[in-house]
Every structure is written in C-alpha cells, then in structure tokens.
Amino acid sequence: MTGTGNIVAALPFPTAAKPKLADSQLRDNLRRATHTIRDKRLRTVAELPEWERLRLAGAAIKDDVLARLPELLVEFEAAATAAGATVHWARDAAEACGIAVDLALSTGTREVVKIKSMATQEIGLNEALEAVGITPIETDLAELIVQLAGDTPSHILVPAIHYNRHQIRELFARRMPGVDLDALTDDPAALAEAARRHLRARFFSARVAISGANFAIAETGTLVVVESEGNGRMCLTLPETLISVVGVEKILPTVRDLDVFLQLLPRSSTGERMNPYTSAWTGVTPGDGPQQVHVILVDNGRSDVLADPVGRQALRCIRCSACLNVCPVYERVGGHAYGSVYPGPIGAILSPQLSGAGANATLPFASTLCGACFEACPVRIDIPEVLVHLRQEIVAAAGATPERAAMRAAAWVLRDRRRYSAALRAARRFAAPLRLVGRPDAVRHLPWPLTRWSASRDTPLPARETFREWWSRERA
Amino acid sequence: MNARDEVLTRLRAARPSGAVTVSRDYDPPAPDGTDLVELLTDRLLDYRATVRRCDAAALPTVLASLLTDASVVVVPPGLPSAWLGGTDVAQLTDDGGLTPGQLDLPGAVVVTGCAIACARTGTIILDAGPDQGRRVLTLVPDRHICVVRVDQVVYGIPEALSRLTDPTRPLTMISGPSATSDIELNRVEGVHGPRHLTIILLLP
Predict the structure, then answer these.
(1) Strand-pair partners of A388
(2) Is residue B26 part of a domain?
C-alpha cells in the first residue's frame, strides 16, 4: 500500500532544479534565512551539555515506538476514545481526506480554520475540501502567505522561506482582503499585525478546525501541537469541532517521553530554547475547547517504510527541518525542486520511500553525501546511509546501464597497480591539451558520450605529478 | 478488511523485532549555585516578556500598578480574591460562559496563576487549574499577567513535566509572548496570542 498525495514529484530533480538555480533572488532569500537559523541553532544547542545524550534518547524512543507500533496505536485509540475522542483509521491519502471531508460536511460548515500540518499537506486535504465547496483557511503566517500567493510550500517549518519581506508586503497589499495599506510596511511586525487582523474574526466565527499533531501519547490518548504564533491555540480552543490528522509514526509511549522531544524540537527547528506555545489536549474536556474531537490515524506508505531495515529510520523524523537548513543542495535550489511536501535531505529519503521509488527515483541522488544533515538531526537519522541504500536499490532495479559498465571497468583498473599507473599516464596525455582551454585543473563539460556525467559536476583533471612520482623524485 | 485491521496487520508484518532500551541519562541536575529565579528571569526577558518580583503583601499593589490602563480584568474562577484587592478596574469573572467577543475588548487584561514554571527554558505551564481557568481566558485578551510562586519554579523540562498532577487536563506551555519566525526566519513578537506577557515572581 504505497503512499499517495502531494509526495510524488512531477519532474525529475535535475530538471526541476535547473530554473531554480538560475533564480538569484530565490538563492539570496534562502541563503539569508538558512544562515540566520543555522547560527541560532548552534548557539542554543551548545547551551545543553547533554545534547548528544538527548539525541540518543530521542532516537531510542522512536526506535522503541517503531518496534511496538501496533500495540501503542491500539493503546492510544483506547485512551483517546475513553477521553471522548473518536478515532478513525486511513490506509492512504484518499481515505484520510474522505474521512475528514465527511466529518466537516456533517457539521454543515462552509469554511474550516487550519493549523499548519505536514500530514494534511501530504494527503492534499485542502484540495479535497475545496472540491466539496468548503474553504480551508490556513492560519499559520507562512502558510497564509503561500495560500494567498497561490503557491506551494517550500520548507517543512517555514513554507514561505522563499519569500523575503518585500515580496510578502507586495503580496499582502494585492491579495489580503481589507488590508490597511497605510499601516502596511515591509517591517515583519507590521506584516504580522496585518495577519492578526485578517484572521481574528475568522477564528471567532469558525466552527471546525483541522490540525495535525507533533506527538500522540499512547498511555493517555493525548495530542500535542508545538507552535509559535497562537493560531494553533485559537484553532484548538475556539471551534466546536476539531479534526486532527496524525501519521501513525507520531506516537510516543508515555508523557515522560515528551521531555526529550520538547527539548530537541524547538532548538532544532527555530533555534529557540522553547517555542512560544505548546498545547496538549486529551479527548474532550467539558466546558473547555472543542466538544467534538476526531483523530484520523494515517498510514499512507508508512508501513512500507517500516518494512525496510535501513530506510525505516526515516520514520523517526519529528519534522524539525534542521537538515534542510544545513543542506548545501537545499540552500541553492529551495524546496520546490524536490516536488514533494517533504523537501531537503529528509524529503530525499522520505518521499521515495512513502511513494515507492518509481516516481521519485531521482531524489536520492539530490545530495552530495556531505553528512551535515546527520550531524544536525535531533533523532540521529543517518540520512547519507539511507540515500546510498536507496541509490543502490534504484541502480539495481535499472539493470545494465552505460554508467554501470563504466564503473565495472574502473573497478577492474583500480584493482591492479600497474593497470592503474598505465591508466593514469594515458589520462594525463589526454588531459594535456584540455589544460590549454578553460580552467587548469577541472573540465566543466566533457565530450560525448560523457556529456551527461558532467551535466551536474566538474570533472577534475589528473594531477601533473602523482604522489608516487613526487616521492621517488624527492627521495631518490 | 477494514482500514484499522489492515493498517495494524501491515505494521505488524513490517516492524523490526527485538526490544529497544532507552537511556534516561539526559537530565543533568542544575549546576551548583544556580539561582532558579534569576535563570527564569533571564530567559523570560530574552523572550521580551516583562518580569516583576514582589512578596504576597505587595502583590495587590503591584497588580494594581500594572492594571492602571486596563479597561477590564478577566478573572479565572479560583483566583485568590486578595490579589486584586488594590485595584478598582472592572472585573469579569469567568463562570464558564464568557465568549471570545467579551474577552476581545480593547484593554482587556487577564490575570492568572500557573501550575509549574521551568527556569531553564523560561516556560510557564498552565493546566487549567482553578486559578488559571479555561484555555480561552489566557488566549484572547491581548495582555496576560501570570503570577508564579517561587516554589513552582523548577530547573528543567523533565522535572516540570513530572510535577504535573494530571497530564490529561488541557495543558498550555507558554514561553514568552506570541511570536513568529516565518519572515526570513527572524523572531518577531506578537501575532495571534497575547502580545504582552508579564510574569510576577511571588517571593516568599
């Protein structure tokens, strides 16, 4: 049962990345934002001498969850139901959307307020609601920006990271109904004020809210949402009906386990000691908050990911986006090039596994394997290891290719010192005229049949003198 | 097979075998000489909250001085009545029926206690206790004044969570005023939640 929804790239990564690389404004916006957050994250992480122990505990808790997932889900269902929630199950995106849409329709509402949620983006819930005439209103500032622009998110935490303040000001001026143009400057505080005014009446009149959850606690049936702006609190408190779409891997066994993740997540995502607001609710509390509470537990490909012994570590992900912010590839191409709601390093391993590699077969190659993502990951997902594993699977599935033949030939040459020396001498003779044109130690474009190899990388020329030659000359 | 059974069957077939041990060695004690009240104050100021300190005798005066420009004070049902003894600003006590519109009056200020405060992260935890009330009370008014007793302040998040009497009550953890990092990943205070947070540290 492979996953469906907004996780399947329409274009191969190199094709999608090309125009993005040519957009200097985009690269400028991304560089500024990712570098701001990198420095902040390093400062707040350095404050905790126990950071590595927290990472180990976070990874172990998630591995324990993956080993006991069926039992923990049943435990969660029983506790949440006892507390007054209704728990639903969905095999894939279409089924999850169907349940959420039916629940919303049964209330008679024409609009729903939404808390930013990767799960609802993944299943394409907004499109499904619009199809039956219900307007989804995104209330997170970045999601609102993306929605007003008719755009798609490009970052897990900050979907509008590809816009700068001037572009956001222009967008609000053109698209936000009733905006006060005189008060609207490109000062982030003025932009936040405009969003506050725009959404306030909607929070007060909304009857249905839709959320995801950062964590779902099995022992108590509690859901947890971590946020900054208070739009989450509005959605979780004011409407009569709350529908939460939750991936099955979001389970934590006990309330105690939250102490690890409430330390790992804020420092990794926004580089803060703690995010402004964290809400936890357990079913229905009479007189306080929504009185109709629904939870939709979604598989959508996760059980397939769980079946892969190397790839299943991707299910530890807590969607902090630290790996995006440190990735040299993400920083240059942005999130849209990945074609999935999960971009960046985690997307390169999660999207192909959730959807089956077919449509996303180029994503595991969208990395330099530099390892910065693993260093930054609060739950120690060895992203480079999974990337190489997925590449192996894709290459194995492809069968005989010219690249494979070339690699076999290279392996034969490298196995023997005399063959290697002879090949090196031949390469130097071949390279000598190339040094006369272009750069002295690398070639940008190789001639056919190697054109495709050099399409996305420089090819270094062999050194003028090898180490062995230098050694024998110096020590002779 | 229905969706529930099918998902559970697939997860059972896919999951790894073997037990996982979790090491709980991630909770260091506060370094020697740590002043929790100082640490909490430092964190709160970093979030651009306002911090005051006083003892129980001075609390009504301090609260009155903070409420001079308030139009109405929103009061949870179990707030100690002596706290607001120094002010004559109109009070709106929640009996469970206050609407968001009533709470959204310009100049409305809510005064509450709290359940626990975590010094290391500057976090105030509300658990809907009688001196805190329903979640909506601390959400809609633009200004929240929260009184924290010194004996409610703990060092780290693990201790804070372990001291919650009932984690299934609605919980709200507050670390500074409402903020966003959505524009160029810089933190800006003030979006939908209260834009002004004042913490009064109640000394013994």
Answers:
(1) none
(2) no
The answer to whether B134 contacts chain A (CB < 8 Å) is yes
pLDDT of residue A258: 97
Residues B159, B153 contacting (CB under 8 angstroms) = no
Residue B142 near residue B166, CB atoms below 8 Å: no
Number of structural domains (chain A) is 2
Which residue ranges of chain A lie beneath pLDDT 50? none
Q: Is the ipTM of this complex over 0.85?
A: yes
Closest chain B C-alpha to A280 CA, distance in angstroms: 5
Answer for the pair A461, A443: CB distance below 8 angstroms, yes or no: yes
Position A437 scores a pLDDT of: 67
pLDDT in tens, A376-418: 999 999 999 999 999 999 988 888 888 888 889 999 999 999 9
Task: Tell me whether B1 touches chain A (CB under 8 Å).
Answer: no
Contact A226, A272 (CB under 8 A): no
pLDDT of residue A406: 87
A289: contact with B, CB 8 A cutoff: yes
Query: Can you give the CATH number for the domain in which A205 is found?
Result: 3.40.50.10420
Q: Is the Cβ pair B15, A69 closer than 8 Å?
A: yes
Do A177 and A135 meet the contact criterion of CB atoms below 8 Å apart? Answer: no
Q: Which domain holds residue A412?
A: 402-475
Tokens linked to B192: 């939908």
